[in-house]
Amino acid sequence: MSMVDEFSGGRPLFSRRRLWGFLAWALGVALLAAAVHIVVIFMVPRMTTSDGWWRLANASGSDGFTLLAPDGEGPAITGLDPLFVHGACRLSLKEAPASLSFSGPNNFWSLALYLKRGTVLFSVNDRTAVDGKLDMLVVDPIQNAMLKESAGAELDQTIVVEAPQDDLMALVRFYAPTPRERQIAAEHLEAAECAPAPIQPAG
Amino acid sequence: MRLAAIILGAFLGVGLGIYSAYLTLRDLAPVDTIESGSWRGWPRAGTDEEDPYSRARLARTGELALGSSEGLKLLARTDDAGRDLSGACRYEVTGQLPAARLWTLAVEGESGAGLPAPKRGVRAIGSDQIVRNADGSFTVTLAPTPQPGNWLSTEGGRQIRLAARLYDTTARTVTALTDFSVPSIVEENCP
After folding, report:
1. In terms of CATH, what superfamily is B31-189?
2. Shared domain check, A144 and A162
């Protein structure tokens, strides 16, 4: 006989059966909480439309690179380096491959292609690019197959990136710590190209 | 009675699940990090191998991870004694950062949002602008008022964090052989 049973007399408040019932209930609550916790953690990136990718997409156009406002001035993208000039361009591969080309300023620069949910598909910096220039063609798998067939394409200097989805963001970062360098970087960004580039048929 | 218990349990379970998820996402996910001193980095952020907590946290804050050819961001929210960094205090940040072609050091708001431009001084400094000590290490002072040497203004920030961004670095793949030195953060004066 447990203490509890003795204290509460003939029909105990906390009988062994009730205790087991309570433990089963608590276990059920804990399992449900764990399941909900996991579902929430996995759903947050899928449900959100305010993650970095969408903020970037909303702040930029699809023709040329849009200069992003520095943090604290205008609709900012969180977590960008204040010493950099950033430009973004939205790529849609539905109609045609997207062509990106620019020559960076003499400082460090880098470019990243982001898939939805913020996964980096491809990134490159000024050292890995040829002569500090970027010439890139982003294609989907079907366009890639067409590209290989079309003999006319001159792609020696071009980085060809195959994307698993049709909607991507390109983000370019130019290191520009001084106002003068910021201006130069902004000029480079303005001259940068980001546009659909239909594949010329072979022949 | 039994039905009431089941309904109460269902609400409690869902509530606890959501609340615990909120608690883990509110803070910097301590999952799959590289840590040294008070610095933390998420080398797999933005890759396919990113853990679900970091991914959910980035989705909430709206940050975009640096690509593997770009670099790695390290964050420090506390000094070496484990106290939260406060914009009202003066800190000495001394030492080296992992090998990188370029790095920048920036004072940010506690949640990662940029602070408004300070009246005097700057919020960020790059490795090419920094004045180094004789042994190649650097010392940066964080303080709300002007300081001699390398100074980053913490003016107007209550709780702050320090972001070190390493560009074109090998620090993303930390092994026993790579040098992962980070600067110490020591509180000098706190009114």
Report:
1. Domain of unknown function DUF1214, C-terminal domain (2.60.120.600)
2. yes
Inter-chain residue contact A36 with B129, CB threshold 8 Å:
no
Instruction: For residue A29, give the nearest of B9, B55, B125 by CB distance.
Output: B9
Say if the Cβ atoms of B17 and A82 lie within 8 Å.
Answer: no
Count the alpha carbons within 13 Å of B103 in the hemisphere toward its beta carbon.
Answer: 21
Could you tell me how many CB contacts below 8 A there are between chain A and chain B?
168
Q: Print the domain residue range for A43.
A: 3-47
Is A119 within 8 Å of B47 when comparing Cβ atoms? Answer: yes
What residue of A is the nearest CA neighbor of B23? A37
Contact A33 B16 (CB under 8 A): yes
In a domain? residue A162: yes
pLDDT tens per residue across span A25-74? 999 999 999 999 999 999 988 888 778 888 888 888 777 888 887 655 55
DSSP string, A8-43: H-SS-TT-HHHHHHHHHHHHHHHHHHHHHHHHHHHH
User: What distance in Å separates the CA atoms of residue B79 and residue B140, rounded to the nearest whole number?
Assistant: 14
Select the residue of B67, B114, B123 nearest A120 (Cβ to Cβ). B67
Entry pTM: 0.84
Q: Virtual CA dihedral for B78, B79, B81, B84, nearest 10 degrees? A: -40
A58 with A116, same domain: the answer is yes
- Mark whether A105 and A29 lie in a shared domain: no
Together in a domain, A41 and A58: no
In a domain, A202, yes or no: no
What single-letter amino acid sits at B35? E
Is A37 or B37 the better-scoring residue by pLDDT? A37
Among chain A residues, CA nearest to B109 = A79
Nearest by CB to residue A36, choosing from B14, B48, B67, is: B14
Is residue B179 within 8 A of residue B99, CB to CB? The reply is yes
Please give the structure tokens belonging to residue B138.
């650097």
The residues spanned by each domain of chain B are 31-189
